[in-house]
Amino acid sequence: MSEVVKFKSKDKLIEEEVMKASLSIPEGIKRERFIRLELGTELPTDRLLISNILIEKKFRLREIYKDLDYYEGELNRTNKILKSGMVTSESGIKSYESYKKQLEGLLAAYGKELDTHGLLLVYLVELIDKYFSNDEIIQLLGGEYTQANRIKEFYDKSESGTKCLCESYIIHHIEYRWRKGRCKDFIDCPRYEMPLFYCLSDYIWKCIKEDPKARMEMDRVTEELFSECMINLVCDENGNVIETEKVVQELTAKELIKNYRGKFINDLKKINVFDDSKKYKIKRVVDGIYDVLDNEKNVVGRIYK
After folding, report:
1. Which is nearest to 93 in space by CA: 75, 81, 104, 107?
2. Taking each helix axis from N to C terminus, what angle separates 29-38 and 10-23, rounded to the nearest 10 degrees?
């Protein structure tokens, strides 16, 4: 009798190949055990494998970010030399352009490797949550218990914005050394000091940006939270800022009539006496187009510049 051949789906094949490439472990029992873990098989003895993979990736990410700091600096220096006109000979210019091309290729390769590690971390954080205790997770990530307890309080209240505790710890900077930090209110360390945070968060943001629906939802949430302090920038071809404008502004009737037009402005002009103490809130939609908002942030009119 002929043996029945079971074909794997395309998604399954891709998943296994990604794991094989990203884990950098030999073919055989280790890889198969990890795949079975991902499928949900209870294998408590594989805790050592999971922790070793995380530690191995953390050290590799540190190396990558240190290299990136150097090569990005080299690329900036090379661009400045080429733009400055310091090198005038044809051979010298070709030499710098060749070096620039090599640097760009190297940085692109590092970017692809970081994407692979980011995808792996998405799998790992769920497995670590499943197989490790809270104290063990903190030790694996190299975090401080005081900071971890603060993060866990928000996680327990479902206010951390993440779906598992390990991810919460990474995204909310458990790796950062607050006692040694140069600033108290924001993260100011180089990327290699917080490799898991930068790799995982950059990968998540990249996925969001590449998904139109996710991008729109993230833009909406960001705008709701920070619209009052957001600023639109206009830059020239060299990246220099030539114009700034607040996304949300509060203006008097006289300021609106002077600088804007539209039906709302025409109606405003019909008022005989203007109260300069009254402010109208406007929100930038696109270049030259603005919505007029009431106190509940509902759109009550549209004006143009």
Report:
1. 81
2. 120
